[in-house]
Amino acid sequence: MQHPPATPDPSDHERLLIVDFGSQVTQLIARRLRELSVYCEIHPFQKVDAAFLRAFAPKAVILSGGPASVPDAGSPRPPAEVFGLGVPVLGICYGQQVMQHMLGGEVRRGEGTAEFGRAYVERSRPLPLTDGWDDREQVWMSHGDHVAALAPGFEVFGTSPGAPYAITADTDRGFYAVQFHPEVHHTPKGRTLYENFVKAAGFARDWTMGAYREQAIEAIRAQVGDAKVICALSGGVDSSVAAALIHEAVGDQLTCVFVDHGLLRKDEGKEVVAMFRDHMNLQVIHAREEDRFLGELEGVSDPETKRKIIGRLFIDVFQEQADRIEGAKFLAQGTLYPDVIESVSFSGGPSVTIKSHHNVGGLPEKMGLTLVEPLRELFKDEVRALGRELGLPAHFIGRHPFPGPGLAIRCPGEITREKLDILREADAVFIDQIRRHGLYDDIWQAFAAILPVRTVGVMGDGRTYDWACAIRAVTSVDGMTADVYPFSHEFLLETSTRMINEVRGINRVTYDITSKPPGTIEWE
Ligand code: XMP
To answer: What is the pTM of this model?
Structure first.
């Protein structure tokens, strides 16, 4: 499989290099910088040597935090050349310590100075890096070691109880080093600090989605030429923005295949096809394969078996459709930057984690297609901004994530058409409630699940024996962990009443109050 770049050449932009030492929050540094319209890339320390630095030609460098300990033999270092580039360098946490150590300071372990969590930094004197900060600011710390003696040329600009050198700088050389993590949101003025740093480095701050759109279109045209491109449109934000962008670049050379497995939400299939085909003039094949999917799922209740059946059929259907598109050479995929960032591994070399799209994994090789991945440089927030640039409607861009296997994993136990129909209605009422109360955008994901249990109820003078249903709403940053959304009691009561009154087939509503972990977001 080839991976020629379908993304703009970022060397067109001033670039900031983030050297990653394995901190859990390194990606947040990149996101903060992108929000400031600065193009940056994260690279693992193992990869960054003098030749890499020359080729990358950063306008500034940030050394990330990390779990290692500077006094330990073999702990990671950036190449010494980082400090000879003549560009500003900002060290964060481990990055601060390694910088002090390499430039002649001293780092010590322990001695009761560990700080984890919230701390307060007192600014001892003004520094451009902390312009806009108060004399005492909340920061987030996570360190066991500390700097015990400063490298020549450095001065102290801020202290905290556990970090006498919380903010240090050698302003002549443009070297800044902080013990805390300005990228996390528990450091409320962290963004200001990054803004001051990029200002000091003289960035033009020209990384905007408007500019990206123009360059991405050129790059797609250069990659694709006059060949045909196919795209599996799921109705999710990533594949939708990728399709809209590629369509703008090569028009009708793009054909989208929307595999309708019959496990979509109420009116979803119709709406996605109407938007892309009728409003945006894309060529969309609506493969209605409900019978095939539900047929094979009949009697299946094991969650993993359900997923496997859906995944296999999806590939079969997509391939059948794609085979009919003569001369297709490229497959578009909505891969994002977090999917391709190389992560730091301390046990071996850098490891690359590439998440293949759950639906089309393995297809490019099988079909001899080359990938077009125009979102490979972007974070999710940037994809949304690009989608707005391309004219996709706001309500569409802001939609909650929806899993590939669809309602199948919100219908624990056996799937039947009857249950799916009830679930679609119940889900629609729940989401309508959330929208009416203005809560939709505060929630990461909200949905109804239909439970494999009938319960007795009483409606009017009659006894009912209908399905029980659960509602779930969570907040999350990336779906890896999640908190239950704290609905008010009134909201829950009103929602339950509406759902039972408006949806035939359910007579009981339960509210799922499990966070993740220990629960997962989906029920299966
Ligand atoms: P869980 O249930 O694992 O979900 O907490 C985390 C996030 O992933 C989504 N999800 C899936 N997405 N195929 C997908 O494309 C799947 O099989 C799948 N399972 C879960 C889920 O909706 C949530 O956003």
So the answer is: 0.86
